[in-house]
Amino acid sequence: xxxxxxxxxxxxxxxxxxxxxxxxxxMTFKSSGVVNFATGAIALYTAYTYVLLRTGELMxxxxxxxxxxxLGGPLGVFPAMGIALAIAAVLGMLCYVLxxxxxxxxxxxxxxxxxxxxxIVLQALIAQRVGTQIPLVEPIFPVKSISIGDTVAPTDxxxxxxxxxxxxxxxxxxxxxxxxxxxxxxxxxxxxxxYLTGLSPDRIALANWALSSVLAGLGGILISPMVSLNPVxxxxxxxxxxxxxxxxxxxxxxxxxxxxxxxxxxQSEATNLQNTIDWLPQTGLSEAVPLILILGFLVLKGRPLxxxxxxxxxxxxxxxRPERIAVPVLLSVAVAVIALLTTSGSxxxxxxxxxxxxxxxxxxxxxxxxxxxxxxxxxxxxxxGAYSLxxxxxxxxxxxxxxxxxxxxxxxxxxxxxGLPALRVRGLPLTVVTLALAVFCEAFxxxxxxxxxxxxxxxxxxxxxxxxxxxxxxxEDYPRIAFGILSLIVLxxxxxxxxxxxxxxxxxxxxxxxxxxxxxxxxxxDVSRTKLAAFAIGAFIAGLGGxxxxxxxxLATAExxxxxxxxxxxxxxxxxxxxSITGGILAGIMAPGGLLYIVLDRFANIxxxxxxxSGVLLIxxxxxxxxxxxxxxxxxxxxxxxxxxxxxxxxxxxxxxAVAPVAxxxxxxxxxxxxxxxxxxxxxxxxxxxxxxxxPGEIVGLIGPNGAGKTTVIDAITGFxxxxxxxxLEGKAISTLGPHLRSRAGLGRSFQDVELYxxxxxxxxxxxxxxxxxSDVPVSRRxxxxxxxxxxxxxxxxxxxxxxxxxxxxxxxxxxxxASPAIALLDEPAAGxxxxxSQWLGERLRQARDSGISILMVDHDMDLVLTICxxxxxxxxxxxxxxxxxxxxxxxxxxxxxxxxxxxxxxxEPDADTDTAxxxxxxx
Length: 924
Prior knowledge:
Elements: H1 2-10, H2 12-32, H3 39-54, E1 57-59, E2 68-70, H4 77-100, H5 108-130, E3 145-148, E4 151-154, H6 156-177, H7 179-189, H8 191-196, H9 201-223, H10 231-235, H11 238-247, H12 253-276, H13 285-301, H14 326-342, H15 345-370, H16 378-395, H17 402-419, H18 428-446, E5 458-459, E6 464-465, E7 468-469, H19 481-503, H20 505-515, H21 517-522, H22 527-553, E8 555-556, H23 563-576, H24 581-590, H25 595-604, H26 610-624, H27 648-652, E9 672-681, E10 684-694, E11 699-703, H28 710-718, E12 724-729, E13 732-733, H29 739-745, E14 747-749, H30 762-770, H31 779-789, H32 805-818, E15 823-827, H33 835-850, E16 854-858, H34 862-868, E17 871-876, E18 879-884, H35 886-890, H36 893-900, H37 904-908
Parallel strand pairs: 11-16, 11-17, 14-15, 15-16
Antiparallel strand pairs: 1-2, 3-4, 5-8, 6-7, 9-10, 9-12, 12-13, 17-18
Helix pairs in contact: 1-12, 2-6, 2-7, 2-9, 2-11, 2-12, 3-4, 3-5, 3-9, 4-9, 5-23, 5-26, 6-7, 6-12, 7-9, 11-12, 11-13, 11-18, 12-13, 13-18, 14-19, 15-19, 15-22, 15-24, 15-25, 16-17, 16-18, 16-22, 17-22, 19-20, 19-22, 20-22, 20-30, 23-24, 23-26, 30-31, 30-32, 31-32
């Protein structure tokens, strides 16, 4: 028992540093909304600065200048610490002013990607300036020990933990009881409110960046005598620190500190267990601690779909639809073959490396570019493919080509595991999960001697098929053209597959999920299955790329698939263009060891700065060119090949027509029955006992004052809000079904805030709905019909994000109608339309009703509602107060008092004609 206690004490040192970095993360997030992945790198930079100052040198962080400046003699502990912390403060302020202040309006994910670029820059800069030699650091705290039963534990860990806890106390007091702390909290709650009260959020954020960098740097300095200075290890401190910060919800100082210290102690105990219990793996248990904590916390906290109003902004650009690709594919293949034939030695090896990394990059295009899931584990999945290939090939004797395919399947299985957290979390937390998984997988598998060949790597046999040698060769025969052609074939097949995916229904579903998960579910898309499909496909592609890397190196080694190399590769993919196939191919050319790398190294001698430059370019790309280099390439109007060209007559022989009218169904059986539906949010009753019906061939209005619960009722009917009561569609209860299943059953809906797929065209938005249409009309024809119905036929190719609010509303209505639902629930379809456009829309809704689509409509345009609706249901404070025809609703006293109001003329002349008492403006 005492042995376990001593290991827990040993872990307090690392835990204290996690807590310090977590504190810094909380401060930067509160003040500027940035989850700073570079916080560990800042701690590393400060620690190296301190160590060099102790030897009498000052690090110069500018490439090309001398690496250090001689100060004439070593500095003491406190002078060195003071100068190092001052430099850390300046570094933090520069990061904010140069990078994150200009990005203050960017999404959280975009800021996080920029901080990943900063992490790459700082680590590469340190490696270039001080090298990989591990310096010795003199102790800061007294080197003593305390007895714990039969064992002893060093006291410096206790001192370090005590210092960090003391800092947490001071920070808590400062945030709660000082003007600066109150101002920081106020700016975090509302930047506009801070401006109105005379506060400067910029100055507050600048000060917090300085203080957070000092905190992180202090942690790095204090731990440096206990843990050897290692660029990778210190930078990866960010993973357990992020786990602690997630527990603290990026706001609680004490939860973050306690979680950080606990993680360090548990990691130390995990190391003890794996060294004393034979059946436990030799490595990876300590890395599993933050991963388990992250997964457990996020799974419990996460939700399958975002709440209303919680849809996050996307940081990704539009994914172009591949058109007329035959000619560019043939030309690209010809160029690649010529490059393989005309080069030799290292240049041909660089061409092959570019081809292979192009395959890996395409996996990122699928996962991130199409599905919007920012994964930092794609190179790790490639490593799974390589190590699986070694086992399948050398141990089980499975030959080529079956071995690499099965290895890719192994990577697919792990890819699905990586994607499982995406079922409940999204955005930045998912990125943290993939990073933690990558760290765990590298330690648990790649560096575990019991699972592979140890430090020497796992051998992989050369590929052969029907006696033909396809390996990369060795000696003077290296690298062989045959292996280059093999890699090129894989790249072409994968590229064509990704192009097909983008044009397929599944690809459109991925883009819809990327743009708006709630809206995607409302159109019948199974969001969870679509995400898992993206991770599975991306992992399979990454596994193929990893198998090729294994064949190229003749063995699988951990150094080829490190977490930091994966992060660097992600940076290059983002720079090249992470949402397009062109960007994926370009990323292969730009990858470390690729063609661009070797050319720059040979002719410009900047190979040692390549990682540093990639980090800088990632920051610049996120700030000024998030679409990537591929988006800046000139667009070439490639001709279509004769066998793929569609005749003009074939595309114009039919003109869009309105949907043929369908007779109304039996009015004795409602198409939608809502019975005693209630919705509660804690103590707040948003809807209570709501009951009404909608019959076939009927338009029913759902009206009421603001806050009456209209949208809440629609959310409950469509499955987006937990509710009580019963919802039936065409006589079948659907209350237990998820939103996408209700949509597929025939329940269509639009949203109050439109919620379109802004990075898709008008036609693609409508296609998402038409692809699950209950109509027998072909999808393309159905899209034409619906666009013609709403008057958007001439804007089919326009990007939705460029449309006016009124036209966006029409696209939203068209997307619902394209699915031919049994009933369409339209939430404020006339918002943004003038009176003439609203009247025109009313005629189109009548046309849809006549075609057999019943409609439940929420809108504040009373002229529209009372003109086209057959019946009207009125809500107030979550309850139905009236139901009837438009004439009955106009004259209902309860409705007039709660919502419609009384015209001045009618109030003065009680006997005036009823028609003059029509609804006025909506009362809020």
